[in-house]
Design goal:
The structure is a homodimer.
Chain A (H helix, E strand, L loop, with lengths): L3 E5 L3 H14 L4 E5 L7 H7 L3 E6 L5 E9 H5 L1
Parallel strand pairs in A: 1-2
Antiparallel strand pairs in A: 1-3, 3-4
Organism (chains A, B): Arenibacter certesii
InterPro entries (chains A, B): Thioredoxin-like_sf
Protein name (chains A, B): Thioredoxin family protein
């Protein structure tokens, strides 16, 4: 199975959601991207349709925005 | 593993998220509750902390609000 990608920005909401997603989907099936550590991947996430974090991009390209941590504008600030 | 519960209200956003969640988490690991068919379970969902649908309540009781279909107020209307 192609991996999902979980984008987050280290906020408390994000970290909590990350734990849940990893547990539900399985650690091996998700790539975790932390924008604080990987600023260069913000553009990729926006291109995929990510509007806020945390968000999970599924293997078929759908974007699931989970709870609400921060907007992409906040992430870039 | 205890099942997660996916609450939704049949809106297009909900149905799309349902497909994604079932694929990611596995059909056997999720109970699907459609408020249109199970009005009686709205109170249970609210008690669990569901504020909008679609939402996934994880086995450990966390609520993941996914995208945004409708508020619980809309669901009850």
């Amino acid at each position: 199975m192609k991996k999902s990608i979980f984008y987050h920005a280290g906020c408390p909401v994000c970290v909590s959601a990350e734990q849940d997603i990893l547990e539900l989907v399985g650690t091996d099936n998700v790539e975790i991207v932390h924008f604080g550590e990987s600023k260069s991947r913000i553009a990729e996430a926006e291109k995929a349709g990510v509007k806020s974090v945390p968000a999970l991009v599924t293997p078929n390209g759908n974007v699931l925005h989970i709870n609400y941590g921060a907007s992409m504008a906040d992430v870039k600030a």
